[in-house]
Amino acid sequence: MSFSEMRFDQLADCITTKVKPQETNINVYYGLEHLEADSLKIRNSGAPSDVIGEKIHALPGDIIFGKRRAYQRKLGVTDCECIASAHSMVLRAKAETVLPEFLPYFMQSDLFMERAIMISEGSLSPTIKWKTLAKEKFMIPDKDTQRKIAELMRAFDESVEAHCNTVLALRAIYSSSRIAFTDCTTVTIKDLARPDTDKSFIDGDWIEAEYLSKKGIRLIQTGNIGINEFIDKNDQKWISEATFDLLRCTEVEPGDILICRLADPVGRACVIPDLGTKMITAVDCTILKIDKSKYDADFIAYLLNTDEWLALCKRFSRGSTRQRITRSALGDLTIQVPSIDEQRAFAKKIAIIKDALLAEQAAIEKIKALKKETITKLISGGDTQ
What we know:
Layout (H helix, E strand, L loop, with lengths): L2 E5 H4 E4 L2 E2 L9 E2 L24 E4 L4 E4 L8 E3 L4 E3 L3 E6 L9 H6 L1 H10 L10 H6 L1 E5 L1 H33 L9 E4 L12 E3 L8 E2 L3 E4 L16 E3 L1 H6 L10 E4 L8 E3 L7 E3 L3 E4 L8 H7 L3 H9 L11 H6 L1 E4 L2 H41 L5
Parallel strand pairs: 4-8, 14-18
Antiparallel strand pairs: 1-10, 2-9, 3-5, 5-8, 6-7, 6-9, 11-20, 12-19, 13-15, 14-15, 16-17, 16-19
Helix pairs in contact: 5-10, 7-10
């Protein structure tokens, strides 16, 4: 295995061809919200009609890299002609110096990502400039080694994809598990809350950047709220106990339901697990501490993620750029709830599916971690910085 030192602009071109969404025949739009951390496959997309302003024209095989907040590790490879967010960097491998199938894996490595974070500029929304990245030097293995590394990384990806397909199948079963209940009662969301405290149906806290700290109390963000699942992420944020007291924050406790009032989709919710630390949440999340004598948290969370519920929340949402629903409007929405015994019986059935989902997701994370460790080891042998 041999390495050669190369500037990044020897490895890739930065594509800057602009497209106006309203004037193109291209029907796929990839924004930063469609990119997943540590996944080259772009599973979701939007339409050009959904966005305004000039975008970047990308071709199949191009790399879309989230140049803002590089610590989120958002990077994907296009499988079709598309337009990409102007907040991304569209890169095209220079085949004469690097294999196009190797470059995205190299960019997923800690070696590249740590450098990307280091050269980002700005505090609130750190961004990478092409002229800065272009000058960065990396030790790149010979093409034969690149090919072998790419083949190994592709095998990791295929394993992840197999588990992802299982997750999709389990989610489909989960979504279709609803049965007809007898003697349901119509209940507003705010009336699900415990009656013994005025903080049982309340928005989270407005936490500005100046109040963040390196440890202390965990800030649960909107991105942690999935469709009936808690999504733990690497970009964790914290505040101190002193800040908690100063701002009179509301504590989020294990078993609470957090409802995200911000797209996408508006109204999604999950039961908060025990993370082993004190927690608060962001202002765009509503904390629901349910009355456990009448309602089962897992059952209620299930209802708050059905297609019917999410469509209802969307109907009452407002906003031109990002849709959100007010807590007042959210609290007045209603659901049909059976007896507590029926709720608990149903929750036990769907818990089996949720456990299988968690096992598959854990397997995915283990494979991704091994992949990251492997690629970093394989390419770091020639790095001298």
